[in-house]
Write a structure and sequence with these properties.
By secondary structure, the protein is an alpha+beta fold. The protein has 3 domains: 59 residues, Arc Repressor Mutant, subunit A (Orthogonal Bundle); 206 residues, BirA Bifunctional Protein, domain 2; 49 residues, SH3 type barrels. It contains 9 helices and 16 strands. Strands 4-5-6-10-9-8-7 form a 7-stranded mixed β-sheet, with helices on both faces. Helix 1 packs across helix 3 and helix 6 crosses helix 8.
């Protein structure tokens, strides 16, 4: 275990108590000067650590940043985030970074985290509100051996895991809006962007990006009617690192089951978590507008809508809006 991780572990074990530099030096098998150097580095990363020439060090609080050390501390995975976690203060988009790594041969399970994004993206080139040090901006790399036609299932799988994670961790009864939105009531809490590289009809890799509004207190005028955050709905600030750890633990289990047993289990959970089944919607498609009631998703993840003439439309692409009263959204 690297010296930094050993130091964090020792400080956490003695949280609330003073521990001498001499004791830490002996435990880590490094000089006291090396201990002090590591403590200063931890402070720069946001850890709250007091220092006294006579008493030693007093660990008070973990960093509020989404640091790899904090995420790994609770990981029970074998692949996702266990070895490869890239953390940056700012990037254009975490998906851009992870695709660059994927093109260089990075393995499945690579995780990229950022404290903020300059050009956060949603589906169809839309922007994603990405203030610094408030929310989750996470991408991870998949290399499933599946046909391209089945790749849409991965977005729905990710949405199911994200919704289950937030329900378990926050108590909020979040729902899923096809194909990639995490909702609380009628407002967006998070979104998923899966970008695929394929050779012929076989998937090479999938870069899956997730944005979750965690601790944002204010949205701009254009977003406040459409977006919300965990903080706004609960009145509590949540640890982003804990949420990420819980998500990765759950995702690895669900992803392995999906590869072994197929999509049926994901489909069942998606329907239970969906905010759309049985609702009237408007689908804006390249060929025109389709209105009707959401019936289901099929085995490939397409949305099935029944119109007023009882015809079933299979939607694989486009924007789908829930109907509010007589208005379309």
């Amino acid at each position: 275990m690297p010296t930094r991780e050993q130091l964090i572990k020792s400080l956490k074990e003695n949280k609330g108590c003073w521990i001498s530099g001499e004791s830490l030096s002996a435990r880590l098998n490094v000089s006291r000067a090396a201990v002090w150097k590591q403590v200063r580095s931890l402070r720069e990363d946001g850890y709250v650590i007091e220092a006294s020439p006579k008493k030693g060090y007093h660990f008070t609080a973990c960093s509020q940043r989404v640091l790899p050390d904090e995420i790994r501390d609770g990981l029970q995975t074998r692949v996702f985030g266990k070895k490869d976690i890239v953390h940056v203060l700012e990037t254009d988009s975490t998906n851009v970074l992870i695709k660059e790594q994927a093109d260089r041969g990075a393995p499945e399970g690579l995780v990229v985290l950022s404290e903020g994004q300059k050009k956060g993206r949603g589906r169809r080139g839309r922007t994603w509100f990405s203030p610094h040090f408030e929310n989750i901006y996470l991408s991870f790399l998949l290399r499933p051996i599946i046909p391209l036609v089945e790749s849409a299932r991965l977005t729905l799988l990710t949405a199911v895991v994200a919704a289950e994670t937030l329900r378990a961790s926050t108590g909020l009864q979040v729902t899923i809006k096809w194909p990639n939105d995490i909702m609380y009531g009628e407002k967006k809490l998070g979104g998923i962007l899966a970008e695929i590289r394929a050779e012929m009809d076989l998937v090479d890799y999938v870069a899956v990006g997730i944005g979750i509004n965690v601790n944002t207190e204010h949205f701009g005028d254009k977003l406040q009617k459409e977006a919300t955050s965990i903080f706004l709905e609960t009145g509590e600030a949540f640890s982003r690192s804990d949420l990420i750890t819980e998500f990765l633990n759950r995702f690895e289990t669900a992803y392995s089951r999906f590869l072994e047993t197929g999509f049926a289990g994901v489909r069942k959970k998606w329907k239970a978590l969906s905010s759309m089944v049985g609702r009237q919607v408007q689908a804006d498609l390249p060929a025109g507008i389709c209105c009707g009631e959401v019936m289901d998703i099929d085995d490939e993840g397409a949305l099935l809508i029944r119109d007023d003439k009882r015809h079933i439309h299979r939607i694989t692409f486009g924007d789908v809006y829930l109907v509010r009263g007589d208005d379309f959204r």
